[in-house]
Write a structure and sequence with these properties.
Number of helices: 10
Strand order of the largest sheet: 2-3-1-5-4-9-10-11
Shape: globular
CATH class of the largest domain: Alpha Beta
Oligomer: single chain
Amino acid sequence: MRERQTLDESISGVRSLTAAVEDNTGLIELGEEEGDESVVSEAEAALKALRDEVAARQVETLLSGEADGNDAYLEVHAGAGGTESQDWAQMLLRMYTRWAERRGMKVEVLELHDGEEAGIKSATLLVKGRNAYGWLKTESGVHRLVRISPFDSNARRHTSFSSAWVYPVIDETIEIDIPDSEVRIDTYRASGAGGQHVNTTDSAVRITHIPTNIVVQCQKERSQHKNRATAWDMLRARLYEHELKKREDAASATEAAKTDIGWGHQIRSYVLQPYQLVKDLRTGVESTSPQDVLDGALDPFMEASLSQRVHGDAPEVEDLA
């Protein structure tokens, strides 16, 4: 039903655009024949207004991967650097939450480990919405922040690294067999808010897939049974995403980037001082308003990365900055 709805919307959208172009083109011809400049101007303005809708639908055509329409899991991990990186990880978590809210998507926190002094060590979000994975999949990688540290009494400039990794939620039609011998299951006490019960019982669950060293964890529910079920869903999704990555030429580079959250592996830099600039190192897309980006204005970066994946190129920087 979801696929049918998507196809119906795509077909009706193209038909609507085609009809609008034909109608306004006809009005221009009629206005020119009758010498009515007002009709010509009105029709030309209508055609220009269609550009934004056409551009939006062009981007939608880039979301054609087999799992692009699915919900997504988003993991954020702080890199080396202690409090600095943990604070940056929390900023990234907020950025993606804001982005999802702007698009009318729902966000659930499945796991969150607070930092010692500030920020977070890691967190896992479930992002629910149309094409959630299709949009977010280009955000996997290391993100670099340059700023005057709020934790440094000497107000020195610091560079911090955190990573984001995205994988799709898979439905029941996709069967993934995971032998018990290939996993290790650990339980532990959840951290953070949640009341006495959550913090005094081993309700949180961590599952490690030994052959791939993929680790998932969930502490959302008070029930260990529910957390275990969610963790198994997350593991199946991670293994599915792992298989998808194998089909891409960039798989080796992506896996190499996961080995080190630091210099030489970042996909995007966010500079707050001494100047203000966010630059995607894969596509060259830039923004001179980091605060807007950190508030969720990520679409230009995502669109350029999607275009690069599909066509091997990216839209002009001037069109998106």
